[in-house]
Amino acid sequence: MNAKVFENYSAFLYGYSTLPIVSTVHFDSFPLKRFKTLRMKLNPKIPPIFAAIALGSGAQAASVIGVINFSSGPGGGVILQDSGGNATTNLAAATGVKEWVSTEVDTTSGAFISVPDGQSVSLSQPWVFDPSTPTNIFWTIPGFGDFTLSLTSTTVEFRNSSFLFISATGTLTGTNFDATPATWLFSTQGGSSDGKFSWSSETNAIPETSSSLLLGAALLGVCFRRSRKLT
């Protein structure tokens, strides 16, 4: 599928609006993926209390819920590396980040709201994203909740000579929070300045609700069977 303007990829990918990783990207062809949203329609005969249990059971009070964005600060950027570990200015040949220069918090929401904009961030380097390389402590923000992201897998979604987009999955931890599944989205584009590329990223905390939703589904099933017997 061809596209001339690509805006707010994260909103397209996850179905809700956040600040765009890349405000506008121009390129000739981009393999957009189609995603379907699964919606559960509750039977109107089921008493509301059971519906509330099923939906409410997915909430985890101690999970990290929110979004935090990073970018390169003034004079900062990323120095990319090729498969041999050498610095490169060719996005198409990049397989990792050799060095992060002046990384700071851009915007926050939810659990990250206490982290001030402009706060410095420590990221693991070098970071090899191709091939996918698990990273125990990928980024961390000392203080302000001591949030830390560990990566388990990385995928190069798109890469050419002018644009690089990467998605990754991992686990977020923080003071007084449970370990929470999360995604990391990273992009850089255009030419480099002094061997450094400007970039931006977004970390989305995604609380895991599968086990609690199973419990809710079971309760709904019991209620549905009972309602059929009464009719």
Report on this model:
With 231 residues, the chain is α+β, with helices and mostly antiparallel strands. The protein has three helices and ten strands; from the N terminus they run ααββββββββββα. Strands 1, 2, 3, 4, 5, 6, 7, 8, 9 and 10 form a ten-stranded antiparallel β-sheet that branches. Strand 7 and strand 8 form a beta hairpin. Helix 2 runs antiparallel to helix 3. The N terminus and C terminus are likely disordered.
Mean pLDDT: 74
- Outline the biggest β-sheet: 10 strands, antiparallel
Head-to-tail CA distance between termini: 51 Å
- Secondary structure: helix percent: 10-25%
Number of helices: 3
**Overall geometry:** globular
Low-pLDDT regions:
1-61, 210-230
The protein's oligomeric status is: single chain
Strand residue content: 35-45%
Order of helices and strands: HHEEEEEEEEEEH
Radius of gyration: 21 Å
Structural class: alpha+beta
List how many beta strands DSSP finds. Answer: 10
Brief account:
16% of the residues lie in helices and 37% in strands. The protein is α+β, with helices and mostly antiparallel strands.
Spell out the blueprint of helices and strands:
Blueprint: H1 9-14, H2 48-56, E1 67-81, E2 87-88, E3 96-108, E4 122-123, E5 127-128, E6 135-141, E7 147-159, E8 163-174, E9 177-189, E10 199-205, H3 210-230
Antiparallel strand pairs: 1-2, 1-3, 1-10, 3-5, 4-6, 6-7, 7-8, 8-9, 9-10
Helix pairs in contact: 2-3
